Amino acid sequence: MAEANLQAMLQAHGITASPRQLAEYLAEAVEAMEEGALIPAAQELPEAELEVLRSGGFDVDARPSEQDDPIARASAAYSALMETALTIKAVAAALGRNESRIRQRLLQRSLYGIRRGRSWLLPLFQFQVEERKGTRTLKGVVPGIEQVIPTLSPELHPVSVWRWFTSPSTELTDEATPDKAISPRDWLLAGRDPKPVADLARDL
């Protein structure tokens, strides 16, 4: 498929990244791949990122088979993570802060960012996002996440961080439903104490 036709197809599905950008994301993912970044199934990912994968033609609802390539799945997840991530400018505007303050928080590691040359991209999982009629609105930062991100190893692959934040953990349960595991992200969104999440993050 010619690049112009591929670009038109991507835009028709709401994907703003160019084919070249997506290829760069895939290359970055493969180059930095590690065992912990290999996700068992795309359906474990957050809905915003699942939509990107669906738009790109990935069958996110199918169970993985023995023939599935885990590197390809993780690379696709990384592409979705990067495609839905936000720039410093977008985050600053949405939160009503100066861009310099967002950069400061990235350097302090109270916000999670992925460096790309001299710029940063901030993945969606750390924000409260409202989806309405196809429009995504940033409502704020996930409560308490600034106490968790600094405890994460900087060596962790972004897909590993993303998956950990959004996957249920048997270490996090509600007293009312002790058999139901809660993801670190949902635990924080509910306004619970961030310390247990920070303690888990140190052990990753």
Q: Can you describe this structure in just a few lines?
A:
This protein is of the alpha+beta class. It is built from 9 helices and 7 strands; from the N terminus they run H-H-H-H-E-H-H-E-E-E-E-H-E-E-H-H.
Key words describing this protein structure:
204 residues, alpha+beta, 2 domains, two-stranded antiparallel sheet, globular
How is this structure best described in words?
It contains nine helices and seven strands. It is globular. The protein folds into two domains: 82 residues, no CATH class; 117 residues, no CATH class. The chain starts with a helix and ends with a helix. The relative contact order is 0.12. α2 crosses α4 and α3 packs across α4. The chain has 204 residues and is an alpha+beta fold. The strands form three sheets. The chain has a three-stranded antiparallel beta sheet. A two-stranded antiparallel sheet has the order 4-5.
